[in-house]
Amino acid sequence: MRDETRPTWATDSVASPTAAAGEQLATDSTGPDELAEMRQPPARLVTIIALSVFISEALVMLLLAFLPPFSTLFEALLDSTLLVALLSPTLYYFGFRPLVQRITEHKQAEEGQRKALTNALQATHALRANEERFRTVANFTYDWEYWVDPAGNHIYVSPSCERITGYRADEFAQNPNLLKSIVHPDDQSKIIVHNHAATETGEILPIDFRIVTRSGEERWIGHICQPVHSEDGRYLGQRGSNRNITEHKRVEEALRQRNRELALLNRAGQELVSILDLDQVLVNILEEVRGLLDVTASSIWLVEPPFPSQGESQGKGLVCWQAAGPKNELVRGWQLAPGQGFAGHVAHSGQSLIVPDAQADERYFKGMDQQTGLKLRSILTIPLLVKDGVIGVLQMADTKADRFSATDLALLEPLGASAAIAIENAQLYEQMRQDAETKSVLLREVNHRVKNNLTGIMGLLYTARNRVMVEDQATYRSTMDDLINRVRGLSTAHDLLSASGWAPLRLSDLAARVINVSLEALPHDKHVSVNVLSSSARVTPDQAYNLALVLGELTTNTAKHTLAERDTAQITFQITLNDRDGIVCEFRDDGPGYPKDILRLEHSNVGFDLIQNIVRKGLRGELTLYNDHGAVAVIRFEAQVRD
Predict the structure, then answer these.
(1) pTM of the model
(2) Long-range CB pairs of 190-193, under 8 A, 24+ apart, other chains included
């Protein structure tokens, strides 16, 4: 309410400028007595004026209170010079102007209060709007957000907690230990005391743990929290954020599983390609697949050997080659009749088969359960296919029903393809090994007989040389010695080839052996130094026989002519390879050299006729003879073995 105390006239300190001017005029033109009479109005007039002022003031108050436009107009009129001119100085003198001023001041105060109240209301509305915005953002966050005070009580929990856990926000607020109570028992240690690691950039890394929802479902949570402080540094509790990462974990596990599967396929492929022991490799594969798929048993069944074609496989039974799992020793070696069981069915059809419940399938061979004591339910069988047809099956079995899926089939089919190729290669390798063994036996027999025949021939030659009597005994014995040396050279080459399995021979090794063997018949007082330079050149078995005869003849020639007048001689044999894939052999001694007719090839003996024919026809090469501080023979022929 407005203060109704009226201003004291005598003490009113605010005077109208017009009243002051009139007062000054009266003072100047009127005497003291007259002035005194003017300042003392009649009592009735005073009463009337006072009553008028009171009524006017009340009327003005009512108008100001209920008619704001009139208030504004009245205040404007009071400030106008026209109103000042019209109103008599007497009204101002009796206090109407101070009253109006008080009314104006009151309205100004009310206006100030109204503005202050409006500002306060606007601030309150803005605060409420901000609070509503922040609460809306918090309440509609997809993740489960919360804030706990230093005592562990929940100050705020976002409604998202119910979608993730099945528990409402008010339940977490009422029970501060609810979060810890729903953490999976195996992950309790992760959440009770934990510290978040941080990256080099300061990013906080979450902690992953599992919870059990109200419905009993197991879910993965990605949790992150950090302390909350006020502007003045006071600790206000912990702010946490929990995210449902169950699907992310499933994808991660699926990726890890796929990586394990690919690693298994890669490892199995490498092992199968470099097979040494097929049985052990298959055992390893079965064990790894059994562990990877977490199944009870696994096995490989093969069509009865020899591996048949598609048409033949349908009429043959299966044999369990390898097995992994309980009672595998009982299963290994087991035989199934054609078409018997799931394995026989797949071997016959050539199509993979997934059986969700074997016990309910009439094709199941129940003798397996009786033999092993296992009640198998889920069975996955894939055919082992090669070019000629089905050679067997790969089978996975488990005691749980509906255990296998298309994903498991997609894993096993490429593994089965690799295993099928490896098994076929192993069969071919075994066949080759058996063939090689047979060949080796035959070669040993042939080598033995050839060596015996050559030895017998040399024995006959020795006997003929010693017992046959001819007129020119020296010539006869020389001829027989030459024959014996030739046979000995052939025998030496045969021994080397037999020892190498009839593989290409290093020419330097052949030359050293033949030259030294040809000199074994020298008298004890004669000696020939042999120097064969090493070379990587190799020759075929046919070339080896021809070169053995040539080198034997050249060595015999050196021994005859160089040691005729002295006790020592030297032979050097060198091999070079030219750019045209040719081999050049140089046989050099330090003797008197070749006669001129031999160099011109106008006259030759049996030995050089043999050498020329072998080089030209056997080696398809070229023979060159010349003297250079001794006799030099150069043999050129094409290399048939290239490194």
Answers:
(1) 0.42
(2) 191/223
